[in-house]
Amino acid sequence: MFSKILIANRGEIACRIIQTAHRMGIRVVAVYSDADADARHVAMADEAFNIGPAPSSESYLRSDKIIEIAKESGAQAIHPGYGFLSENTQFAEACEANDIVFIGPPSSAIAAMGSKSAAKAIMEKAGVPLVPGYHGDDQSPETLRAEAEKCGFPLLLKAVAGGGGKGMRVVERLEDFDDALAAAKRESKNAFGNPDMLIERYLTQPRHVEIQVFCDQDGHGVYLAERDCSVQRRHQKVLEEAPAPGLSEETRKAMGEAAVKAAQAINYVGAGTVEFLYDVDGSFFFMEMNTRLQVEHPVTEMVTGQDLVEWQLKVAWGEPLPLEQSQVKTRGHALEARIYAEDPDQDFLPATGNLRYLSTPDESVHVRVDTGVTEGDEISIHYDPMIAKLIVWDETRDQAINRMVQALEHYRIAGVKTNIRFLHALADAQPFREADLTTGFIDDHRELLFPKSKLDTHKALVLAAGFVLEQRKSREVVSTDPWSPFGRQNSWRMNSEYAQPLKLQVGEDIHELKVLERDDRYQVHVGGSVYNLTSRLDDDYLQAVINGHRISIHGNLHNDKLVLFYEGDTFQCTVYRETYGLEEMAGEGSLSAPMNGAVVAIQAKVGDTVTAGQTLVIMEAMKMEHAIKAPADGVVTDIFFAEGDQVSEGADLIAIEASDEEVA
């Protein structure tokens, strides 16, 4: 077995590989960019090398530097993880040329599946069923438009060299095709260096079911169950599970055998995933093959009891597969939720910030957390915004869902916006519990997935007051005289009762509370109502009784910014001080940046008349494009940035004079 390997990746997947390697007695070399100098994977590795500036093109994608570091450190093999160089044919070839084992398939297999159009031709020849569409070499706009008309609408434009939802567009009508093609080509070229597209018939109610396959160097192959990854947004998986609910054993076997056949058709070695579209009539079609370890591999590990990274290392060393097909068994049900730094209420815009408070559920046989961050880490614009993967297992799907709901309630983050509340609503939604799954699940059930807060605003304000006051008391210096009323940690006044004012700002609204404090309770006046409150704060855990209702919450108060966590929901407010004033809004008539990122394209110039909903600026953040649209009709009076500029959230991009003289 290898004695030392290098991991050409970062974040949670680097940490996850390190854990298995160390368990197997293998030393690990990490690489890191300037932005990741203090990252968790760097601290976990046996040694680490700086590889360049923060942009991945200058660090984690520098295959020449990675090869150089592998040779310098004495690493015998390189594990690419997923993303970055994991499906890069040239990198696999460079490893082979330098006598370094690439822990993945041979470069010929990556090349065969790296082009989605070439992959479809191979699968067609191997007898694997395909979705109708076009995957030819002629990439002229005229040919693609003509093939789109033949295919029919709706259709899916997909980057030939793509993945992760990038360079992909659903086109509903022929008149939308040209704009969608241009955008998909541009995004694909930026992400993969290849603008080529393929066209597929877009199935309206499909499920996304994929098969985990493994092949050794002797050509033997097995499949390790299937995963359902139907719950997606923008073609990116949000929640995955294994096994796929509702599949017959015949379909499961047919899919598995087709997946192995697909892998063996390209002389595959190592871990791979064959993705299928599963239609309502029970038919399934080859979509693509990912020639690497998948983000969602932990759900397969949980139901099979196998360590897929260990399998990768053994196969790369030349050992046979640990199990034959008849020995592969599954037990129970597992789900994985991807916890992202993003704002679901703002169309899932990527978020950045400092993880000033991070509390995760306790890990056990039922709960697993794969992460690459710790409290205090920065979520930057340079890399994917995934914070962690939360994986749960139990004997049945219903029990596993209950585990997931509970675990999400115990996952608490402050300092950066996350999708935890959204994931909690998703996992607890009745249609999901009933396995009413399609790739359109999120769009079909938006009302369920964006529920109103579980906490009444007044009750939340009372809890916030209790948290703030209890924390203040815990930090006050207690008098040495235990009998002195002046030493009490409350608002005691001689010959009177003093109701202290407390202002809490929620959004743009300022709520004025008055709090009468006695030794063992508070009387809180808010919005014309009176609440009797008793509370006790233990670190971040507040136990409270409000008018006889006992309630327990967690919270984090930092620089007057308070976040309360309750059953997967959050309540945020700021302790308002007169010197703060209200936060400045964007300048009158301006269009501001909704997140940190780079300006990719400006589609207007000074003097242009624009209409509401017209795309004026395209920004890129976390490797995805976002269209910034005009909020109203008007005339562009100024443009503050150029294409290629980096901008911060809230920065004015374009000034617009509204045609009706109202603020745009």
The major sheet is characterized as: 8 strands, antiparallel
Number of alpha- plus pi-helical segments? 17
Q: How many independent structural domains?
A: 5
Structural class: alpha+beta
The CA-CA distance between the termini, in Å, is 64 Å
Known CATH architecture of the largest domain:
2-Layer Sandwich
Using DSSP, what is the number of strands?
A: 39
Mean pLDDT reading = 90
User: How would you describe the oligomerization state of the chains in this entry?
Assistant: single chain
Kindly provide the name of the CATH class of the largest domain.
Alpha Beta
Tell me the CATH topology of the largest domain. Answer: D-amino Acid Aminotransferase, Chain A, domain 1
Say which CATH homologous superfamily of the largest domain is assigned: ATP-grasp fold, B domain
Can you walk me through this structure?
With 664 residues, this protein is of the alpha+beta class. The protein folds into five domains: 4-103, 3-Layer(aba) Sandwich (Rossmann fold); 132-201, ATP-grasp fold, A domain (Dna Ligase, domain 1); 207-450, ATP-grasp fold, B domain (D-amino Acid Aminotransferase, Chain A, domain 1), CATH 3.30.470; 457-478 and 487-575, 2-Layer Sandwich (Glycoprotein, Type 4 Pilin), CATH 3.30.700.30; 592-658, Beta Barrel (OB fold (Dihydrolipoamide Acetyltransferase, E2P)), CATH 2.40.50.100. Helices cover 26% and strands 33% of the residues. The strands form nine sheets. Strands 14-13-10-11-12-15-22-20 form an eight-stranded antiparallel beta sheet, with helices on both faces. A hairpin with a 2-residue loop joins β24 (499-506) and β25. α4 (89-97) packs antiparallel against α5 (107-114) and α12 runs antiparallel to α13 (420-428). The longest helix is centred in the last third of the chain and has 19 residues, at 457-475. It is globular and about 80 Å long. The model is unreliable at 491-496 and 579-588 (pLDDT under 50).
